[in-house]
Amino acid sequence: MSWLASFILSLFHAVYYVFNAVSTFRASLARPPNPLAAKRKQVPTHLALLLNNNSAAVDEAFECQLLDNVQEAISWCRAAGVQQLTVYDREGILYKSSYELRSRIYNATEGNDTREVEAEVQYPLTPPPSDDSSSSSRSLSPEYSTQPKLHVTTVSVSPKTRTRQTNENEGVKRRKTDVGSMSPERPFTLHIASRNSGKPAVAELATSLKHSRPVSQNGKSTLSIADIQSVLEGEHGLPPPDLMIIHRTTEHTYPKHVLELYGFPPWQLSLTEFYYTVYPTSWNASWSSASQKPHSYIPISEIDICRALDQFSGAEMRLGK
Amino acid sequence: MLSALVSRVQDFVAAKAQDALLAVLRAGPVPQHVAFVMDGNRRYARRQHKVVWEGHADGFEALRRTLEICMRLGVRCVSVYAFAIENFKRSQDEVDALMSLAEDKLTEMCKHGELLDRHGIRLNVLGRKDLLPPRVQDVVRRAEHMTRHNDRAVLNLCMPFASRDDIATAVAASVSDALASDAPHITEAAVAAHIATAAAGSPPVDVLVRTSGVRRLSDFLTWQTCEDAQIQFSPKYWPDFGLWDFVPVLLDYQRKVWAAPVDA
């Protein structure tokens, strides 16, 4: 009778496919979202964009389109009042292109604004060489601490004014903003992350804590959530995003998108709201367009950002209560 | 009398239909480890014009029902978010009611002939058990002890739990291990081994389901689900969640397994 059960299961899947295809078609007819600059009940301070790339599709042209799309996403976020954007791809294509992204941001803002703009990059620290000949790492003086490699690159963009006070030690230069809330001249921060910014960074943190933290008398490490938070979300780490958009950059082969997180840093996911298109219109496009090249780059659009902001605007946070 | 007969026939037909549906679904791949965020008990109670603790009691029945379905499908490990560390911020009345419910139901579930015994389910309570009232801690110890020899399936009852606490605990434990063995570096695998579900011997999470329409993990199993677990959001409140709501989740999982590239 197992052949009968398998046959009926195949029928279930066939019916499910048709149901999803119809749902995808209906989703493509949905009314447009509110525009970027529309007034919303709440706007995320920090938005993350998780780009799921098909590794078979990635070549130089694909990477170029990816960077163009990230640059567009930055301008949309700034127009919507988002102050921080994290861009993530598992393989680290964006992380390896940090320098080029920073150059593009600098050139784009310099061209559009008469004021000077600085784009400051914080690269992940290179830890000082450890003294492996030491018999016990606990003999290191309390002042010495090994900075863990968190594999996050941060680019801060803030316009300069004549009255600005510069502190060379500050990671982000601040200025008093006197423009309206939708002004692109407000400070903006871009974080660039990959899988290495997640679990491997936690392991790096654990290694650095082993060398630097005091231990209790029974040899156990004493550690609090605040200790970890201060590092993983600190100046060289990644703050937790309020909203994450998960976007697949190549065509969907099935008319339904099931959420996965592709190695995004788990510590930062605690309270993040997720947005993704359950019924992807890109599936429609690939099915209906015979000339569509396989593995073409499918950019995230302004409409996707607006839909995500609309969903976030309607979300309720109870924080356990 | 006639209406009672009709009702019995309806129940019989529904039970047989459920058996048939489960047999069909079992013909394909079944996830080894499914996690549930049982959200929406209070909103369900408000919609039904019930008091909050009745919503939680109905939520427990939904847990029992879902666990039965998972066992009959062949799911080997189920993890549920029963109580978050943050939930202690709720009113004292509600926290007390939840602790009483936990005490009653844990005792009931472990009895001979009941759900855990019938399906050979070992109970693990994961999280900061030290934050539970002493009498609940006693019940937890007894329940875990009574089911320790069950080996057909595992139920991880996460209460009170928070992933950040889980990760911090795992990091501290891995640092202690490294100090003891004088290992120069701590690897990702060394930290992962101390994550609560792994430390309890559970397989990786294949699917996480959150009910009530909220699209967040709320600090539940973030380490375990951030890689390749499928995360599903159901608009139903947890007490309303049933087999038909689970069917699309299973079909999506089966599709993923069948579409996965075959290792050479």
Automatic annotation (TrEMBL), chain A:
Q: Name one GO molecular function term.
A: ditrans,polycis-polyprenyl diphosphate synthase [(2E,6E)-farnesyl diphosphate specific] activity
Biased amino acid composition, Low complexity: 131-146
The UniProt annotation puts the region (Disordered) at 123-185
| Top-level taxon of origin | Eukaryota
UniProt xrefs under InterPro entries: Nus1/NgBR (IPR038887), UPP_synth-like_sf (IPR036424)
Keywords recorded for this protein, A-Z: Endoplasmic reticulum, Magnesium, Membrane, Transferase, Transmembrane, Transmembrane helix
Cofactor(s) demanded: Mg(2+)
Q: Which reaction does it catalyse?
A: n isopentenyl diphosphate + (2E,6E)-farnesyl diphosphate = a di-trans,poly-cis-polyprenyl diphosphate + n diphosphate
Q: What EC number(s) does its UniProt record assign?
A: 2.5.1.87
Q: What is this protein called?
A: ditrans,polycis-polyprenyl diphosphate synthase [(2E,6E)-farnesyldiphosphate specific]
From TrEMBL, chain B:
Q: GO MF annotations for this entry?
A: ditrans,polycis-polyprenyl diphosphate synthase [(2E,6E)-farnesyl diphosphate specific] activity
Q: Would I find Ubl conjugation among this entry's keywords?
A: no
The processes (GO biological process) annotated in the record are: polyprenol biosynthetic process
> SUPFAM superfamilies annotated for this entry?
Undecaprenyl diphosphate synthase (SSF64005)
Q: Indicate the segments annotated as coiled coil, or none if absent.
A: none
Enzyme Commission no: 2.5.1.-
Keywords, sorted A to Z: Magnesium, Transferase
Cross-referenced PROSITE patterns: UPP_SYNTHASE
Q: How is this protein annotated for GO cellular component?
A: dehydrodolichyl diphosphate synthase complex; endoplasmic reticulum; lipid droplet; membrane
Q: Which Pfam families match?
A: Prenyltransf
Q: Tell me the protein family, please.
A: Belongs to the UPP synthase family.
* The protein, known as: Alkyl transferase
Please give the organism.
Phlebiopsis gigantea (strain 11061_1 CR5-6)
